[in-house]
Amino acid sequence: MQEQKKRRADILSRYFGYDSFREFQEEAIDAIMAGRDLLMILPTGGGKSLCYQLPSLLMDGVTVVISPLLALMHDQVSALKAASIEAEMISSMQSMEEIREIEKRLFRKETKLLYIAPEKLASEYFRAMLSKLHINFFVVDEAHCLSQWGHEFREEYRRLDILRRLFPRTAIAAFTATATEVVRKDIVDTLALVDPLIVRGSLFRKNLHIEVEQKQKNGMAQLLDFLKGRERESGIVYTLSRKSTESVARELCSYGYSAAAFHAGLETEHKRAVYDDFVADRVRIVVATIAFGMGIDKSNIRFVVHITMPGSIEGYYQEIGRAGRDGLDSHTLLLYSASDMLRKKAFIDELEDSEYKSASYEKLREMMRYAEGEECRHAYIARYFGERIENCESSCDNCKMPEILKEDISTAARKWLSAVYRSGQQYGMGYIIDILRGSSERRIKERGHDTLSVYGIGSEYDKVQWSAVAERLIEMEALERNEYGGLRMTSVGVEILKGRRKVFIRKSRLKKRRKRAARAGSFAEPSTLEELRFERLRRLRSEIAREEGIPPYIVFSDRTLKEMSVKLPSDMDELLSLHGVGEIKAQRYGEAFMELCKELAGVEFEK
Ligand code: ADP
Question: Whole-prediction pTM value?
Answer without folding.
Answer: 0.69
